[in-house]
Amino acid sequence: MTDSVTVPRRDPARGYARRASWAAVPLAAGLALVACGPSPVDMVESPMTTTPSRMAGEELQRSAEPEESCAPTPVSAEFAGTGDRRVPTEGPGTSTVSVPRAPERVLALGAGAVDTACALGLQDLVVGTSGLPRDADVYLPASLVGLPTVGLESGADADEVARAARELRPDLIVLAGSDDLEPGVVDALTGVAPTVVYDADILAWADATEAIADAYGRPRAGGDLLLDVIDRARRAADAATPSDTQVSLLSVTGGDGDGVVVQRPDTLGSLMLEAVGAGRPPAQRTRDGERVPPLPESPPLGDELDGDVIFAVVGGEPGSEDAAREVFSSDRWTELDAVGSRRVFVMDRAVWEGAGPVAARAVLDDIRSSINGIAPDG
């Protein structure tokens, strides 16, 4: 079980006193958070029913019904009156941006921006997207996945980006910031509509959720979304006792080598395993999204891929199922103890490498439903 936590910070500029910013939650320590009213996500049904199917002969967990993932009704805007209000932005340039108090046409350029809009029930306000994973339809509804996209790939022409954005007539643009984001693209989008840039580093996903919700005019509800995720992590830990299980988290990549590697620590799935205090094999221990070397008294035992249970992350590329089939029939794979005991579960890459509260809830439900399970024959 992890023994670290990112301490919640206060940020009065956001208008929301609790920053539920964390990469891992030390559940045994009893994280104390003071609620301030019922959470919107507690007041609506958000089914996360596991619907297993098969992929390359292994059990595929899908803990989000795409058409039921979003809140069915929008959370009300929290600022009365007309006109604009200023919110923080990651830049480049100014540190704050004037945005509508209750935006009506949102261009959500980033997986976190789309996910948070969905969690707040604002899916009908989104007019275009960017940055969604290839298989986003496994957890997001067709009404979001099927929207027009604005290409922001590296080297994108700023004028073309602005032209595509202008055709969608947004009154607010929320944009995922990264090292590859060209300042010229931000400037061009700013000329179309108020543009808020958020930090899209997955280690800052909780901060990003609050920043995005603030831009949408719902900062309090954004904080409540994070409190709901923390509560779900607690419940998952209580129900599944994950600290008693060594969870091997793998990424099925195909291509060179064995086609499977230990999953990177800086992914949503890895962070959620930390949040519930799941045990990990010595070679896979992580803390706050970084790999922790094995202790001297914990020498490697067997294959680094093995554990009491294996969560294999699959998808995201053409031919992913063929790659998985090849991996799952390899000698190295079939000799793993977890494979022999039928404790292998295949997880959707779009969810386990996602960003935002909807994906986080789905990952937590995957963990809760699978960590102590036995995969059926098939």
Folded structure, characterized:
The structure is a single chain. By secondary structure, this protein is an alpha/beta fold. It has a domain at about 70-230: Rossmann fold (3-Layer(aba) Sandwich). Helix content is about 30%, strand content about 15%. The protein has twelve helices and 14 strands. The strands form four sheets. Strands 1-2-14-13-9-10 form a six-stranded mixed β-sheet. Helix 1 links the parallel strand 5 and strand 6. Helix 5 runs antiparallel to helix 6 (about 220-240) and helix 6 (about 220-240) runs parallel beside helix 12 (about 355-370).
Task: Describe the SSE topology.
Elements: E1 53-55, E2 58-61, E3 84-88, E4 96-100, E5 106-109, H1 111-119, E6 126-130, H2 142-145, H3 158-167, E7 172-177, H4 183-190, E8 195-199, H5 205-215, H6 219-240, E9 247-252, E10 260-262, H7 268-275, E11 286-287, E12 290-291, E13 309-314, H8 320-328, H9 331-334, H10 337-340, E14 344-348, H11 349-352, H12 357-370
CATH superfamily of the domain at 68-228: Nitrogenase molybdenum iron protein domain
Order of helices and strands: EEEEEHEHHEHEHHEEHEEEHHHEHH
Percent strand equals 15-25%
CATH class (first level) name of the domain at 68-228: Alpha Beta
Total count of helical runs of at least 4 residues: 12
Average pLDDT number: 82
For the largest beta-sheet, the strand count, sense and barrel status come to: 6 strands, mixed
Q: What's the total number of strands?
A: 14
As residue ranges, the low-confidence spans are 1-56
Q: Give me the secondary-structure category.
A: alpha/beta
